[in-house]
Structure prediction request, 376 residues.
Amino acid sequence: MITMRQDAQQNRQKILTTANQLFREQTAANVTMAQLAKAAQVGVGTLYRNFPTKGDLFLALAYDQLGSYVSQQRAYLTTHPLDRPALKHALRAYLAFRENRYQVLPKGSLEPASQYYQRPDYQDLVHLFADLIQGADPQLAPAAVTFKADMLIAFFRSDSYALQRDVRHYSETEILDQVMTILFPVSS
Amino acid sequence: MITMRQDAQQNRQKILTTANQLFREQTAANVTMAQLAKAAQVGVGTLYRNFPTKGDLFLALAYDQLGSYVSQQRAYLTTHPLDRPALKHALRAYLAFRENRYQVLPKGSLEPASQYYQRPDYQDLVHLFADLIQGADPQLAPAAVTFKADMLIAFFRSDSYALQRDVRHYSETEILDQVMTILFPVSS
Prediction:
């Protein structure tokens, strides 16, 4: 038996998944809420109850994907050691997440950065990166570990990422290689 | 003889210098344009002609100080070699600039980051940092030099800097030391 709560949860997830698909095919700003409701096979009322504005939808999509990213990496780490390859694996997946965000959602910040830094989602991401950074370099002092995690996240925020893609013309792989070389050189 | 143009330039500079002083003493948001005009000894009309809104004033103040910072560092480098101590000297002064920004101007971005990244001021700062980074490590590939400069600037943007000060409780000196250790380790 599906409870109402599960049903509501499923609708919400269906909307987000469909929105991501639609936004990949067309520019997000051009997709109307009516089109999205139809494609997701939910009523327009259901859509607006979940996301009163498109800004709310964009933000929910970004955080939904960030949450999935962190969960997937945590799952990966239950069967893999916390080492440098695991860090690189996690950063490659993070770049894929940033790249999707860059392709799919409107350019620029969706909310003030100060709000972002206070979210539990941000904390979860910092902790994930910190665990990986510490795992890759067990000698590193805890303060330096958090510092590196913060630095990574600041560098990958949407505008800074867009600068690397649009102006510096780096691919995801080139960004990953530079970050690994600069922040996590193989100890000699 | 002082031409009108010089006179206008002097008024503008007097307003910016006075604004910085006033904003250090009181919260920037509480200072009225009338108070500022009086303190700077210019007419209210002159003030508004230069800065139609307080947002314009904040932005002009930030860029005026960034411009001064870059000029001062370029002047310093005419009599000092481009080496690791020069890089540290420049970063210490940059942190003082960020700290003043953090103390004096409203929290958060004054403009979208994408605008900031397109400004000549940003290019000047990247070039300054790139010259210093290359000087400190002549072996580093040019692409990695620019990448490090971008990374530094992204990390020091206002919200990220505020995170380090407010949440991580680092002092300017601690931030400088972490950055030097992580991004510019003394080659062994």
About this structure: The interface with chain A takes residues 107-109, 112-114, 116-117, 143-144, 146-148, 150-151, 154-155, 157, 159-160, 162-164, 167-168, 178, 181-183, 188 of chain B (CB under 8 Å). The two ends of chain B are 59 Å apart (CA to CA).
